[in-house]
Amino acid sequence: MRSLFPWGPRCPDRAPHDDSLPPFPDRVLDESSQPPVFLIPRRPAAAALKGLASDSKSAESTEKELPAPPARPKFYGIALPGWMGLRKERNKDTITPPTSGALQTGDGTYYEPGLGACGIVSTSSESIVAVSHIIFDAAQVGPNPNTNPLCGRKIWVTREAAPGKNVSMEVEVVDRCTGCKAPDLDFSLSVFEQLADEQQGRVLVSWAWVV
């Protein structure tokens, strides 16, 4: 075969077609020369869906099985007698007066009144009372006891004279009881006789400041 370009090199004649080679589909490749092929087994679709459903159910059961948070503890206040919470000052026997309306419980006695610490002259027929020196002195402002803020204050006193039967009355503070403990009260005889018999001399009473 001659070249179309006379100035170029002459192409060699093409080798004749070799009919001895089999067609491409019939050729056998050398398997040793091929790279190895790794097949990853696939999960069947039905099994995969079943697995997802089971995983979802297990997650739901886990959420349902979670324990409920513990309930917050409740705290309840305890009412104490007013004189138990009195603040001490000056010395161990000095306590501030109880809060208005707080219920007190102490001994009730009687005495013969006259000129009291509040500067008022009283008689046994009046509805008066002397409070403990502990409470009276704690409320004192200045050196003059006549100006004590407790002078003239009203107290509501109650005594259980019999089961289910209470006797109550209102009294006015006019004096200071030197022999009384913090919750004790010392009444005029007329007041004491309304609460108990004179022969009893000392009885348990409950009382509170009138607001």
From TrEMBL:
InterPro entries: Expansin_CellWall, RlpA-like_sf. Residues 1-29, 49-71 are annotated as: Disordered. The keyword Signal applies. Keywords: Signal. It comes from the Eukaryota. Residues 11-20, 57-66 have a biased composition (Basic and acidic residues). This is Plant expansin-like protein. It comes from Tuber magnatum.
